[in-house]
Design goal:
Elements (H helix, E strand, L loop, with lengths): L17 E8 L10 E6 L5 E5 L5 E7 L2 E8 L5 E8 L4 E3 L2 E2 L8 E5 L12 E6 H5 L7 H5 L5 E3 L9 E3 L7 E5 L2 E2 L1 E2 L4 E2 L8 E9 L11 E7 L24 H12 L8 H5 L1
Parallel strand pairs: 1-7, 1-8, 6-9, 13-18
Antiparallel strand pairs: 1-4, 2-3, 2-5, 5-6, 10-17, 11-12, 13-14, 15-16, 17-18
Length: 275
Amino acid sequence: MAFVFAFTSPAWAQTINGNVVGTVTDEQGAAVPGATVTVTNVATGAERTATTNEDGLYRVAGLPVGSYSVKIEKTGFAGVIANVGVSVGQDSKADVQLKAGGVAENVTVVATGTLLDTTQSQVAKSVEQTRILELPGRNSLNGLALLNPGVLPNQNGRPGSGFAVNGNRTRSNNFTIDGANNNDQSLSIPRQNLPPEAIGEFQIITNTPSAEFGRNAGSYVNQITKSGTNDFHGIGHYAWDGNGVDSLTTTQQRNFNALRAAPANASLTDKQILR
């Protein structure tokens, strides 16, 4: 009797979270091992903790997109709080320097992004929710993608999505929502479009993506949906339909000319006809 054993390796989902990494040093630049690192989501209050290793390095992985405070504590040093933003699939760096002092002291610093990402080779661009809402006319999926170098609009009604990346076909883009497949397999376009208010972050990878983002040669587009917070919030809309001082479109002008020339409208004013 023969027995066959099948072993399968776990399949890792495409990344929808980010990481906070950094180095903790003292005033002389020496590494501070054993420091406690507490990362807190500003919107929800959720906390994650880590400890620096012998080289003073720490890494807190799998954090949802958002704003975080990073508190570093070590006996004999003043505590440090750094503010940092976390983007999808990227390492947000928060290096801090501890100074000798009492445990009751606190120093607040703001961690800023670097111009050159030394942790990965892929070319990625993220647009956070505030900018998405402040870009009227450009806050659709195609509009946000076209903000990036190497992305061109679809020409001559070619099949596929509304843009092409780095000379690839318009059907060479991979679309996901929260890391889940969002591709229309027959048309090679996004299966579902999200309203701007539902998007927490928009990310497009246009070159040398990591293995987890593979599948298409053009680009990888991931939309991260908003999650709940500790505060009530909503959104209001106001639509301006114009008035009598707006200029007419070509079609509207032709219709107006035809109505104005009709004998039955001879007694009507231009304003009455426009209504």
